[in-house]
């Protein structure tokens, strides 16, 4: 196993009842790599991310994080951040409190330090002026940027994004993709599920095409988008263009 590999997934299978939704996934992610997962609805993309983050138990196979079996290490939840389609902010907490909550209670950090870092993160995602407002006062794009800041406050080694812009008005998509792109440029290791093909082309080091619980094809963006090999991927690209 290469020392540069931060995540390694081996023959991962997952069933819900009788239905197998992950049918033997093999995927590695290197430090600093941006992997973009594309594929139709119901193909198992969210389930895969949830397994990586230990939000979902799996049926068989294994997932390693820094060469440790994720089922044997407690660090995974803290060190792998996740951002969802629905931002899931705490409604009754301010933006600042949303961001400092886990560092204070999970990491047992000193409050003043977490506030200082949270303000820096808000600046990074471009909404420092919203620190003291409640989530109901935010637009979707602002909410998602708070959710990203909240995940970053745990100082994750890897970020997982599950369709981070799918719930947003089209005009707000850009401000969230801008933040994710900036993270990529800073060298953050990321796995991003998205339907934003322009973003995938521009930011992905590798694009992975999921279909019906398996990885059908993977490669550099220009290979996947300009020279798709499988009929399934060709069909998918035709459908979304
Ligand atoms: P995607 O994110 O690619 O749209 P999902 O991973 O959400 O796909 O879902 C893959 C399949 O697993 C779908 O058929 C979905 O209905 C099913 N599924 C997902 N979560 C559950 C669950 N908690 N219980 C039963 N079936 C589920
Ligand atoms: Mg999904």
Automatic annotation (TrEMBL):
Keywords, alphabetical: Amino-acid transport, ATP-binding, Cell membrane, Membrane, Nucleotide-binding, Transport
ABC transporter domain: residues covered: 7-237
Species the sequence originates in: Neobacillus rhizosphaerae
PANTHER family: AMINO ACID IMPORT ATP-BINDING PROTEIN (PTHR43166), GLUTAMATE_ASPARTATE IMPORT ATP-BINDING PROTEIN GLTL (PTHR43166:SF9)
SMART domains, alphabetized: AAA
Domain of life (superkingdom): Bacteria
Family the UniProt entry places it in: Belongs to the ABC transporter superfamily.
Pfam families attached to this UniProt entry: ABC_tran
Signal sequence annotation: none
Record's bilayer topology term: Peripheral membrane protein
Listed name of the protein: Glutamine transport ATP-binding protein GlnQ
């Amino acid at each position: 196993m290469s020392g540069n590999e931060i995540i390694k997934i081996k023959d991962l299978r997952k069933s819900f009842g009788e239905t197998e939704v992950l049918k033997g996934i093999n995927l590695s992610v290197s430090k600093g790599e941006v992997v973009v997962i594309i594929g139709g609805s119901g193909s198992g993309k969210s389930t895969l991310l949830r397994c990586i983050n230990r939000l979902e138990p799996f049926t068989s196979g294994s997932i390693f994080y820094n060469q440790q079996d994720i089922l044997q290490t407690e660090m995974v939840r803290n060190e792998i951040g996740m951002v969802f389609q629905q931002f899931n902010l705490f409604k009754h907490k301010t933006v600042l409190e949303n961001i400092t909550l886990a560092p204070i209670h999970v990491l047992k950090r000193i409050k003043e330090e977490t506030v200082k870092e949270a303000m820096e993160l808000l600046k990074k995602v471009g909404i420092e002026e919203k620190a003291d407002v409640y989530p109901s006062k935010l637009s979707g794009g602002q909410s998602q940027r708070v959710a990203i800041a909240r995940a970053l406050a745990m100082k994750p080694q890897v970020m997982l994004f599950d369709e981070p812009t799918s719930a947003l008005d089209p005009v707000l998509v850009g401000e969230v993709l801008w933040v994710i792109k900036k993270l990529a440029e800073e060298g953050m290791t990321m796995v991003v599920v998205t339907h934003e093909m322009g973003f995938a082309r521009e930011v992905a080091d590798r694009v992975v095409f999921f279909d019906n619980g398996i990885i059908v094809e993977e490669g550099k963006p220009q290979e996947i988008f300009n020279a798709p090999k499988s009929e399934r991927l060709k069909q998918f690209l035709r459908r979304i263009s």
